[in-house]
Amino acid sequence: DAGVTQSPTHLIKTRGQQVTLRCSPISGHKSVSWYQQVLGQGPQFIFQYYEKEERGRGNFPDRFSARQFPNYSSELNVNALLLGDSALYLCASSLEVEADTQYFGPGTRLTVL
Amino acid sequence: AQKVTQAQTEISVVEKEDVTLDCVYETRDTTYYLFWYKQPPSGELVFLIRRNSFDEQNEISGRYSWNFQKSTSSFNFTITASQVVDSAVYFCALSENDGNNRLAFGKGNQVVVIP
Q: Is the pLDDT score of A1 beyond 70?
């Protein structure tokens, strides 16, 4: 079975632009979470969606938004990009909304110039 | 608020040596879940092990073993007989029982296995 997939793999944007990252969970998984990993640090939680509802939000500005579709895939949007948004964005999926192991995709590396 | 501390930043070992990674966590919950993930240079986080707070039994899975001690809030991870393919960053993570699957990660341990 396919694991979590993410697109694109790499992305280069300039300050002030907007970006959309995409994630497809493991088949049968209903929960998708997004994490930001800055170089040299551990991943930081951004959002979790379960059955199209937001179930958790990390300490990120309103420039970050996400949604989940009926097929459980998800998009992460970041508006008004800043240099500090340059990071690896990781998507993870799980069967259940809580107390469940998350499986991660390969990530999207975003560079903001 | 949940917090995970991994004190060591980079650990170098010679192939076939054992390596132990320390993890200390903070949580106010009585039910929580602890994880270890591996991040090779490719960047993808690979799930290794999981332990529930209500199960303190320590186990061995192949070359991996872990030592979970609630009394000291520690969840240490050992790789036995290390191999070059074990070179990666290892993250300890904590999830609380609060209605979502949010993971709080430590800063990670860079393990370098020297052939």
A: no
